[in-house]
Amino acid sequence: MSITRKAVAALFVTGALAAGLAGCAGTPGTPGAAGSGTLTVFAAASLKATFTTLVAEFEGKNPGTKVVLSFAGSSDLATQITQGAPADVFASADTKNMAKLSDAKLLDGTASNFATNVLTIAVPPANPASISSFADLAKPGVKVVVCASQVPCGAATDAVEKATGTTLTPVSEESSVTDVLGKVTSGEADAGLVYVTDVKGAGDKVKGIPFAQSDQAVNTYPIATVGSSKNKELAAAFIALVTGSEGRKTLGDAGFGTP
């Protein structure tokens, strides 16, 4: 049976449309190939600078995509997600808070570790309390600020205290590492325990005092798609950017280590 030219033309157009649609679909989990939509990312406060940069890259590669970032302490974010907050992606500053969501069956698949971080001491540029070691933070009269124990930076502080046998008496315990840094930059504290990335990002607003015992509490950062996400393909593509070469470079430039 012969096929008319009209039929051949119709078949050609159908095939071309199918090929075009396939090309637009992209590959799930590949940066820059996830279409468009709105993505809500819950991320640890210490990731604010790096994730803001990565989101700009992601939106540029995905025209029509809008990424909404929400930064806070990892424990607060995990609680919000547990209570039904509409997040698509969760990036935690420790594995403990990610495990809470995993145990509650609130993740889509498994989390991927993408960075590490360690504590350092942040002091005002003039270092008025003459801090030079972790032990100095326990001296009488020193106004030190730390994260609350349920926050990853607070848990890390507890681990260092235990490892060194040093007991701190902070003047305040904050819900995020950025709040600790704020107390130091405002002059309300003589010192604060923050991540090395926070000191690097603060520039000349603070001075960093490294201490050898920081390796007793290395925080590993995991990232995962939240199970209730309505845009899992876009979430997977964002995670691929964070864990890929571009993400590793941006994180490395900010002072994060590799997992």
Along the chain, the helix and strand elements come as HEHEHEHEEEHEHEHEEHH
- Report the major sheet: 5 strands, mixed
Rg computed from alpha carbons, rounded to a whole number of angstroms: 23 Å
**What class do helices, strands and sheet pairing give?**
alpha/beta
Count every helix, treating DSSP H or I runs of 4 or more residues as helices: 9
Beta-strand residue fraction: 15-25%
Distance between the termini: 64 Å
What is the overall silhouette?
A: elongated
Low-confidence stretches: 1-32
What's the count of strands? 10
Overall average residue pLDDT: 89
What helical percentage do the residues reach? 25-40%
Subunit structure: The complex is composed of two ATP-binding proteins (ModC), two transmembrane proteins (ModB) and a solute-binding protein (ModA).
InterPro entries: ModA (IPR005950), ModA/WtpA (IPR050682)
Main location: membrane
Signal peptide: 1-18
Explain how this protein is built.
The chain is α/β, with parallel strands linked by helices. Helices cover 40% and strands 22% of the residues. It has 9 helices and 10 strands. The protein has helices at 5-25, 48-61, 74-82, 95-103, 152-164, 177-185, 196-202, 232-243, 245-253, and strands at residues 37-44, 65-72, 89-91, 107-117, 119-123, 144-147, 172-174, 191-195, 207-209, 219-226. Strands 2-1-3-10-4 form a 5-stranded mixed sheet, sandwiched between helices. A 5-stranded mixed sheet has the order 7-6-8-5-9. Helix 2 links the parallel strand 1 (37-44) and strand 2. The longest helix is centred in the N-terminal third of the chain and has 21 residues, at 5-25. Residues 1-32 have low confidence and may be disordered. One of its GO terms (cellular component) is plasma membrane. This is Molybdate-binding protein ModA.
